[in-house]
Amino acid sequence: MSQLSHQIQLLRRPSGLPAPDDFTLQAVALPEPQVGEVLVANQWLSVDPYMRGRMSEAKSYVPPFALNAPLEGGAIGTVLASRHPGFKVGDRVSSMLGWRDSFVAKGEQLTRLPATDLPPQLFLGALGMPGMTAWAGLHQVAKLQAGETLLVSAASGAVGTMAVQLAKRVGAKVIGSTGSADKVAYLKTLGADAVINYRETPDLDAELARLAPEGIQVYFENVGGAMLEAALNHMALHGRIVLCGLIEQYNSNGEASGPRNLAQVIRKRILIQGLLVSDHWQHYGAFLAEAIPAFEAGALQSEETVSQGLASMPQAFIGLFQGRNTGKMLVKLD
Amino acid sequence: MSQLSHQIQLLRRPSGLPAPDDFTLQAVALPEPQVGEVLVANQWLSVDPYMRGRMSEAKSYVPPFALNAPLEGGAIGTVLASRHPGFKVGDRVSSMLGWRDSFVAKGEQLTRLPATDLPPQLFLGALGMPGMTAWAGLHQVAKLQAGETLLVSAASGAVGTMAVQLAKRVGAKVIGSTGSADKVAYLKTLGADAVINYRETPDLDAELARLAPEGIQVYFENVGGAMLEAALNHMALHGRIVLCGLIEQYNSNGEASGPRNLAQVIRKRILIQGLLVSDHWQHYGAFLAEAIPAFEAGALQSEETVSQGLASMPQAFIGLFQGRNTGKMLVKLD
């Protein structure tokens, strides 16, 4: 008796903002697990902006998704059957085999979650790739110091909320940027010293001059566009920009414009460093050693925006680019 | 009996490309040197792109030039009279008191040239600020290694010609970019492995793909614009960009466009570092220890474009932005 796997496939490559019709929900029969394989049922699927890049044909740092094959992404699930000595029924595992409700995979494709009573979906967000991205950007790349001023764009997103909180733990002054009054209020509860609602701030330059009169030492950049230009104007001498994301460009079909004021990089001897978390996993243990106890003690918080059911995954993904999430965007399976 | 100093003053702030009428030649009486002061006659004036920034009112890394006061810049001269114990008549000195044929200054504003039979004007170019800029960019910032591929824009300029030669001494593969067939030929005599004439290369992307199929590890950027976009597309993983100049923008009145493909910085985890030589003068001795013997042995070469007479200084300066120089642009005084 074989089990059915329901999975979201990419039907065609999106042009600009993805549309629901770019995706299709298919049911396929799963094979029986062979020796060394494990059958997993997913409970949580990760919804991440970087996935947009893999939906295009262009070569990026990971190969493009194939059409008419299940999409991939972070997922948390439970072992239903195991023919691998490292996993037993009931184990909680993370994998990159998301966008589907169940799968059969080799044990080597799975990671058992650390022992903790924290909600398992944290390992897709604040304790997973986005949290590790924030930690690596602040500590490994920018080497943020107490007393410095940090600006974070998309501060209410999965990476941003962790960047804000980790920076406050270092003793930095934190300015966030986000797109709604609710998100502004939420970021203040996380400890942000100031928050810009960019949709209601016609003069970003003047606002940064007011909020960071001594200049910005570190800019954690997730967005691009007008905020990057304004930040360049207000960076401090020898400031550092962690270039983590340019979400404003991801659906732009190549019409994105770049910052016109790169001369600031020379004037202020700014460092800009592109960040991909894949360069930094060797420090994941150090990150978890700080972050798990901090979550257990309530000293770090995580917000989730949860969408219900596999069929909602495309719409949740599209919502990322419409600012529909606060904190980590997740899909919960029934 | 007081001596007259002829000096170029800024009459009004240029809009876009400077015009000869933005400048005026004035004669002023020099005071007699007081105790601690020195009278110097300049022989060589330095003509540098960075001076354009100081002609605008906008705050930059150095204050704007004052109107109706002599402009400033590198100069090499000879001591005519000295009331400072550190200088005697006939000493060759460098100063930042260019754009004039003579001046009286405190001894502390002068630097005696190192003892060498090399032409003194080298200390305005290959052995001065531009040469030090190239050396600091390659060694202190990019840490260029043997076997790596370096791309240099404005490769036939004062900084570029030194970057090309210093990189060949390291054992790098060097690709230069310049704007005429003569300059292409000259750069090949300096050892460049390949040279792009950007004016005759409609598809910079394809040309870089052909010349650097394994990618560019280090880009020494003096220009900006289309070459920066093309270079970003062909940078290698973890490539480094030394942002030294953006000469294409200096006269742009703010209409400059930035690179539309900054996403490459994330994909390839590129480092971009703004460079000003002022951060690196503590290493000037190390640079001269390498470069003076290399020039004396004929292992380094310098090209000069020389304009005659103080009155030619504004036109020489404008010529920098029209590609009129190969190597260092200088004005020789009679």
Question: Explain this structure to me?
Answer:
- Chains A, B: One of its GO terms (molecular function) is oxidoreductase activity, acting on the CH-CH group of donors, NAD or NADP as acceptor.
- Chains A, B: Pfam families: ADH_N_2, ADH_zinc_N.
- The structure is a homodimer of 334-residue chains.
- The first copy, chain A, is of the alpha/beta class and 334 residues long.
- Chain A has two domains: 4-124 and 303-332, Medium-chain alcohol dehydrogenases, catalytic domain (Quinone Oxidoreductase, Chain A, domain 1, Alpha-Beta Complex); 129-279, Rossmann fold, CATH 3.40.50.
- Helix content of chain A is 25%, strand content 26%.
- Chain A has helices spanning 51-55, 129-141, 158-170, 181-189, 204-211, 226-234, 263-267, 284-296, 313-320, and strands at residues 4-10, 23-29, 37-46, 75-82, 92-95, 102-106, 111-112, 149-152, 173-178, 194-197, 216-221, 235-243, 271-274, 304-308, 328-332.
- In chain A, strands 3, 4, 5, 6, 7, 14 and 15 form a seven-stranded mixed beta sheet that branches. Chain A has a six-stranded parallel beta sheet with strand order 10-9-8-11-12-13. Chain A has a two-stranded antiparallel sheet with strand order 1-2.
- In chain A, strand 8 (149-152), helix 3 and strand 9 form a beta-alpha-beta unit.
- The longest helix of chain A has 13 residues, at 129-141.
- The first copy, chain A, is globular.
- The two termini of chain A are 22 Å apart.
- The model of chain A has no long low-confidence stretch (mean pLDDT 95).
- Strand 13 (271-274) of chain A pairs antiparallel with strand 13 (271-274) of chain B, so a sheet runs across the interface.
